[in-house]
Amino acid sequence: PCTRLLGLLALAVTTTTGLQVYTQDDLQQAIDGHSDGELNIEIMGMLFDCGCDGELTINGKTGLTIRGGVEGAGFYGELGDEEERRQLIVIRGGSDVTFTGLVFKRGFADYGGGCMQGSSSSSVGLRDIDFVGCGGDSGGGG
Question: How far is 126 from 5, CA to CA, in rounded Å?
């Protein structure tokens, strides 16, 4: 009986993973490296556009939860000059992701959601989310 219980605990540990990230690059790497099971990611601050290659992309990932690990955690874009404008997150390819306790601030897109754009094949859950100052030229600002 004890061996059986240990096997169940090991299964839970290998299928549900949690980690903390402090930069958008680290978050993108965690998402890209996720293959199966559930992945819970805590964002430990406000992620700025700090040299990463454009928006965060979630493509074909399921069982993904991204949550704020501290108050005010989330994503911040710029609405400055045209070169500084960026979309914050793109979700596509049948992804299944839930965002909890986050702020999405000042994202902008020429087309699609400035803070978040999801494809019709993907499922996106939003819990306790603040969208602030999101904009777009065509197709919505959220």
Answer: 34
